[in-house]
TrEMBL record:
InterPro entries: DOCK, DOCK_C_lobe_C, DOCKER_dom, DOCKER_Lobe_B. The keyword Transcription does not apply. The gene is Dock4. Residues 136-163 form a coiled coil. One of its GO terms (biological process) is cell chemotaxis. This is DOCK4 protein. PROSITE patterns: DOCKER. It comes from Peucedramus taeniatus.
Amino acid sequence: QNKEFVCRGHDYERLEAFQQRMLNEFPHAIAMQHANQPDETIFQAEAQYLQIYAVTPIPENQEVLQRDGIPDNIKSFYKVNHIWRFRYDRPFHKGTKDKENEFKSLWVERTTLILVQSLPGISRWFEVEKREVVEMSPLENAIEVLENKNQQLRTLISQCQTRQMQNINPLTMCLNGVIDAAVNGGVARYQE
């Protein structure tokens, strides 16, 4: 009925399994295979459509997540509980795509969904009250990728220092990927 919901799947449930479960619940629905905003003909159609895609929670307690000395299990709790806002990104190229460096023209359309109530709650799903769409420039996108990688490295280093991780291979592999980044042209593409 032209409504939008954020639903929390079962523990360890893959997106494909969740989609199949929803299609079994709505057997006459037609599944849409993209995360783009549907056009007006879909909204006016007599048929029932389901558009299902993964969203990322946006934690409210950023200071808890960034403070040193807080155990990882507490941080993990706040990353996925008491969440009002969720987002998903749609990458696209603006202008002519640079074949030498695709990052130069890679923009991101970021959609933020704000719920009527926080998840998880009495229900596993709540309706979207508001949606906000912003475009992130290639520079903003590159900065965010670097900040996320730095945060991932800090977490791995902290786990090694507190002996939560017996095997340091994940840290070694992550460091190797940062220092000797060969994928998509590596660091030089970001510097350009």
